[in-house]
Design goal:
This protein is an alpha/beta fold and 301 residues long. The protein folds into two domains: 6-85, Arc Repressor Mutant, subunit A (Orthogonal Bundle); 93-301, D-Maltodextrin-Binding Protein, domain 2. It has helices at 6-18, 21-28, 32-46, 62-89, 105-119, 132-140, 202-211, 214-219, 227-235, 245-249, 283-300; strands at residues 51-53, 58-60, 94-100, 123-129, 146-151, 158-173, 194-197, 221-224, 240-244, 258-262, 269-277. Strands 3, 4, 5, 6, 7, 8, 9, 10 and 11 form a nine-stranded mixed β-sheet that branches. It has a two-stranded antiparallel sheet with strand order 1-2. Helix 1 (6-18) packs across helix 3 and helix 5 (105-119) crosses helix 11 (283-300). Residues 4-61 form the HTH lysR-type domain. It comes from Sphingoaurantiacus capsulatus. Belongs to the LysR transcriptional regulatory family. Keywords: DNA-binding, Transcription, Transcription regulation.
Length: 301
């Protein structure tokens, strides 16, 4: 039996990701004719049509979708084979694709990347900022090697290394104080004025869970696309919000009239963790990375 080549599967995946022959060819660093020819050879080899070609639309057949799903897994296994050999020679060197969620990336990465570069100069880090759901999907498909994630969050079959706890704070305008001193109890939060991130950000669910007030989920005004947006809303007296400590440490309130006090609740924090696929052969390498991130974070506080 003649089997498909990895190159043919790469072409197929690139077309699936980009939905356009020209862009897929650019992503593979080949000409469009080379990519198209490789895909036709794959279809001939399999004896089936995988892609419907028209002038305007690239559409995968139902069989093509199933083949693409398997192609992702095959390439992922091939990449992990090569990475396992490389990692055994020199850990934390070469390429590493790291996903980071938006409520961590701008506040945590500037603190730790300089130390990471200094300790591991041969590490070529590719960063990708994604919401939790998209990052976990990319991790499962092998598009990412590991993810900096806030837990709890369901991310499939993963192994985790918790770096530290990140406490929640209630943020409000200084002219619109909230009851509670020095900590703010959940009961003092006015659900009609609570501003949270829009759906898709795990921080929203984590702070609501910490407050343990079911009515907040229904009443909260979910408006913000980022923590910076929420702070600007609060600074303009549009309501109050909840922020993680790492954002406060990074100076997110600088230049505003917003005050933040700790949330008084049993689980008023999220766990910042590095997670990776349990099946990954680079587990020990990722544990080393987690330890390096933990050290860099502690030294920068």
């Amino acid at each position: 039996m003649i089997l498909p080549t990895l190159k043919q599967l790469q072409y197929l995946i690139a077309l699936h990701q980009h939905g356009h022959f020209g862009r897929a060819a650019d992503a593979c660093f080949v000409t469009q004719s080379t990519l198209s020819s490789g895909l036709r050879e794959l279809e001939t080899l399999l004896g089936a049509t995988l892609v419907e070609r028209t002038r305007r639309v690239v559409r995968f057949t139902p069989l093509g979708e199933r083949v693409v799903a398997k192609a992702y897994r095959v390439l992922h296994e091939a990449e992990e084979l090569a990475e396992a050999v490389r990692a055994s020679a020199k850990p934390l060197s070469g390429e590493l694709r790291l996903g980071v969620i938006p409520t961590i990336a701008p506040f945590f990465l500037p603190r730790v990347l300089p130390t990471l570069r200094r300790e591991y100069p041969d590490l070529k880090l590719y960063l990708r900022e994604e919401t939790s759901g998209m990052a976990c999907e990319a991790l499962a498909r092998g598009l990412l090697d590991c993810v900096l994630l806030a837990l709890p969050y369901g991310c499939g079959d993963i192994t985790k290394a918790v770096l530290f706890e990140d406490s929640f704070y209630v943020a409000f305008h200084k002219e619109e104080p909230v009851e509670g001193e020095p900590n703010v109890p959940p009961a003092a939060i006015d659900e009609a004025r609570l501003l949270l991130l829009e759906d898709g950000h795990c921080l929203k669910d984590q702070v609501l869970s910490a407050c343990n007030r079911p009515e907040l989920r229904a009443e909260a005004a979910i408006l913000g696309t980022s923590l910076h947006t929420l702070v600007q809303m609060v600074d303009n007296k549009l309501g109050l919000t909840l922020l993680p400590k790492m954002a406060l440490d990074a100076g997110i309130l600088n230049g505003t009239d917003v005050i933040a006090r700790p949330l008084e609740a049993q689980h008023a924090y999220r766990d910042i963790a590095l997670v990776w696929r349990t099946s990954s052969p680079r587990g020990e390498e990722f544990r080393m990375l987690a330890q390096a991130l933990e050290r860099a974070s502690a030294s920068s506080r």
